[in-house]
Write a structure and sequence with these properties.
Distance between the termini: 36 Å
Largest sheet: 8 strands, mixed
Shape: globular
Number of helices: 8
Low-confidence stretches: 1-18
Strand content: 15-25%
Order of helices and strands: HEEEHEHEHEHHEHEH
CATH architecture: 3-Layer(aba) Sandwich
Helix content: 25-40%
CATH topology: Rossmann fold
Radius of gyration: 18 Å
């Protein structure tokens, strides 16, 4: 009840007349999986960017920054992305998720996924307040944030958070930008793997979080983009995920560029990286240009 009141008060403060930034705590009270009380800086949050009424179209996107599960590239792969989507009429929710740390989590590998699932629950449960269509809620993730986004899109059948109202935790579409996909040593970004799973994870845990192995016919449609010369995250992460989507007859679009290295979208004009994404989700029925 306390959380619903907070949401309602926030909506009144934000209004619906301008792109607005507000920060919400992700959990109303107890933070699941945590073993210690988190500091204010460590607490997971959602930063909201709501589009102006004239542009709003009911579509929403959860924005997940990267950072190898060791830090968050919150400005360049979070705030900047949220603002860009809001300008296009899409409500954006930038996730500050818990970094996987043994000292704060019972099982550090599940902390980020818990927060991503909670974010989807918060967005959908407040769709009326934010004038959203709960059937047009997607996710975009960058680098290790792309791993978390693809985990959200392939592990939605199991609730890792309390969900008594059985709200769908499945994103309607995924946008994966130079993503880490696999935890396989030959493919993964080792820093992300070690930070998430530890130095010596079991084969079962490696397979579970190798998302190319978790694709089914129920996996959401996906847009992927990557550069062939990426020297941080191997481009084959995107390729194997695309192949898995194709094998399961899931709609997917893969944009590969020969050069640009890691983080290439940060160095391009917004229109160059955003328009293909919008075209894809429009074709999939989740977005209308205004």
């Amino acid at each position: 009840m306390k959380y619903k009141i907070l949401i309602s008060m926030l909506f009144l403060m934000v209004g619906y007349t301008a792109v607005a930034q507000q920060v919400l705590p992700l959990y109303p009270d107890t933070i699941p999986g945590s073993t210690v009380k988190l500091s204010k800086e460590e607490e997971p949050t959602l930063t909201l960017y709501l589009p102006i009424k004239e542009k709003a179209n009911g579509t929403a996107v959860l924005v997940i920054p990267g950072g190898a599960y060791g830090f968050l590239a919150f400005e360049e792969e979070g705030i900047a992305i949220g603002k860009a989507f809001a300008e296009k009429g899409i409500a954006a929710f930038v996730l500050k998720y818990r970094l996987p740390k043994k000292v704060t989590l019972r099982d550090k590998s599940y902390g980020p996924l818990m927060d991503a699932q909670q974010a989807m629950k918060v967005i959908r449960s407040n769709a009326v307040n934010w004038n959203l269509n709960p059937s047009k809620v997607g996710v975009i993730g960058y680098s290790a944030g792309g791993h978390l986004a693809s985990t959200l899109g392939t592990h939605f059948s199991k609730n890792y958070i309390p969900n008594k109202d059985k709200i769908s935790l499945r994103p309607d579409f995924m946008i994966l930008v130079y993503p880490v996909i696999s935890m396989n040593d030959q493919l993964t970004h080792m820093g992300s793997k070690i930070n998430l799973l530890g130095m010596y994870p079991s084969k079962e845990k490696v397979d579970l979080f190798s998302n190319e192995l978790q694709v089914t016919k129920e996996t959401p449609p996906a847009y992927l983009t990557h550069c062939g010369d990426d020297n941080v995250v191997d481009v084959n992460n995107s390729i194997v995920f695309y192949q898995a989507l194709q094998k399961n007859k899931v709609d997917a679009e893969l944009h590969l560029f020969p050069k640009g290295n890691h983080g290439f979208t940060q160095r391009l004009p917004v229109s160059e990286w955003m328009e293909p994404m919008l075209t894809f989700i429009k074709k999939e029925g989740f977005y209308e240009f205004k």
